[in-house]
Amino acid sequence: MLILEEITNIDMLQPIKTIEISKIIKETTTKGSAPLLTYGIDDNTYFVKTTAQKNPSAEIINELLCAYFAQCWSLHVPEFCLATISKETVDNYVQDMGKLSGFYSPDFYENTLFGSKQIWSATELDQFINISNKRELKLFSNPVDFLKIGAFDLWVGNKDRRPENPNVLIGNETGLFDFHPIDHAAAFAYLTNYKEVREVLLHIEPKNCILSTILAKTISSFVTHEDIENLKNDINDCISNTIENLDFIFDQVPDSWGLSKKSKVHLKAFFSDKARNKTIIEHFLSYLK
């Protein structure tokens, strides 16, 4: 039997911190964006994201919302924050390293950004050898977290986490390996108008879900009937925890990012839909058979 972690107490959610960035180390390259690797004044290293989207700034709103949602699901999401960068810090980088790419507007630093703390000694999932036996499974603090990430994606409609692009880091900060889901900019099926969020648009085809990967199928092969029942109850509780915290989470989004009151009302009603939530859990469980 696999051991499921207890759900994080919903009272443990903390207001989001704002970290001032003291130095830009470099601009990194990913398929969808160009986050900045930076130092904060707290001596930690952060990947900082912005977006060209305005009213709303959907990509970084998605990052913030899903980071909190993942906490409610007891997933090992990297620590996150709001980030500010001064003109002087940008000028110092440009002077030393050359200009930033066209992804960044000349005045991007005037906006509040989203920061995600760097996980040291982490590797991309696609560089990791698949689990092939129970002994390797014991190297992970909670291997079924990978399955929960798949269920999470079904719930938030993250269509960018695919078998060929899992957006999951494997870190060992606890002495055992943990799965760290990253990059939620494409949640809500890339929609920028949250009032348009509908199940038919968020639906993820099996071939595009990480639950269809060999790794997920291997982990599922070690799941007992008792584990499945526990997973079902766990995910149901995760959803309930998130819904109970939605108002608090919405309040963490900076007003300047443009998440409207009507959007919040619509998203709360959407995620509170009991029929949809039941269907999501059933859809998830179908991958484990």
Considering the chains and any ligands shown, give keywords for the structure.
2 domains, 14% strand, 289 residues, alpha+beta, 10 helices, three-stranded antiparallel sheet, five-stranded mixed barrel
Would you write up a description of this structure?
The chain is an alpha+beta fold and 289 residues long. The chain has two domains: 103 residues; 167 residues, no CATH class. It is 36% helix and 14% strand. It has ten helices and eight strands. The chain has a five-stranded mixed beta barrel with strand order 1-2-3-5-4. Strands 6-7-8 form a three-stranded antiparallel β-sheet. Helix 4 packs across helix 10 and helix 7 runs antiparallel to helix 10. It is globular.
Mean pLDDT: 92
State the end-to-end distance.
Answer: 16 Å
Shape: globular
Number of E-state strands: 8
Strand content: 5-15%
How are the strands of the largest sheet arranged? 1-2-3-5-4
Low-confidence blocks of residues: 5-10
Tally of discrete structural domains: 2
Please report the number of helical segments: 10
Evaluate the radius of gyration: 19 Å
Structural class, judged by helices and strands? alpha+beta
Kindly state the percentage of residues in helix.
25-40%
Topology:
Layout: E1 18-27, E2 36-40, E3 45-49, H1 58-72, E4 80-85, H2 87-97, E5 113-117, E6 123-124, H3 134-137, H4 145-156, E7 168-171, E8 178-181, H5 199-202, H6 214-221, H7 225-244, H8 246-251, H9 261-271, H10 274-286
Parallel strand pairs: 1-4
Antiparallel strand pairs: 1-2, 2-3, 3-5, 4-5, 6-7, 7-8
